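cache lookup: miss for this entity combination. No prior model stored, computing from scratch. Input as submitted by user K.M.:
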Amino acid sequence: DAGVIQSPRHEVTEMGQEVTLRCKPISGHDYLFWYRQTMMRGLELLIYFNNNVPIDDSGMPEDRFSAKMPNASFSTLKIQPSEPRDSAVYFCASRLGGNQPQHFGDGTRLSIL
Amino acid sequence: GNSVTQMEGPVTLSEEAFLTINCTYTATGYPSLFWYVQYPGEGLQLLLKATKADDKGSNKGFEATYRKETTSFHLEKGSVQVSDSAVYFCALIPYSGAGSYQLTFGKGTKLSVIP
C-alpha cells in the first residue's frame, strides 16, 4: 500500500517567494496533519483536518501560513511570503479515526535563503 | 492538559548494550501510547503501540509496557545494533470520547549506537 506522499522532498528558495508543499494522504484516512520540525523547537503541530475540514489551526505560526484540503486525497501548505526562519522539515501525516496511529510522509526539507 | 516527558538525549551506547528510554505521561481518560522512530533524513515511523493498561507493545526487538500506576511507557531493547541509531519519540492519543484524537509527542531522544 502507498504511504503518505509528500512533494517536493527538497525545496530551496529565496526569501519573499511563495512556497507550496503538497501531501497525498493514505486512501481512506479521514484525518490529515501538518507538522514542522526544527532542531530548536522539535516537532510542532501546525494544523489538522478531519474529513477535509480544518479543525485546529492554532499551531499555524502566522498569517503567512495557510493550508487547504480541497478533497480527501490532497492537501497543500502554503507560505507567502517565505522567510529564512521558516526553514525546517515539514511533515504531513494521516490516520483513521479513533485511537489509530498516524502515518507520516518522508517530509519536505525547506530552505529559505 | 496532555503531555509526554521523555529522557533527555543524546544517548550513546555500544553495540549489544541494553537500552532503556524513559517516558512518562499525563493525560485524562485512558490514552493509547505509542513509540515512533525517526531515522536520519526520514519521517516518523510507528515502532510499537499499546492501547490499555498492562499491554505490552513489541516490534523489531523493542518492547514497552503500558503502566497505568506509574503513568509510564518505557522503551527497552536487550541488545542494540548500529542500525538502531535514530531519534525515538514517545506519544499518546487521549481517549476523550469527543473526537479530536490528537497525538501529543515527547521531545524525542536521540540514540547513537557505536560499533
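stored under new cache key. The longest strand of chain A covers residues 42-50.
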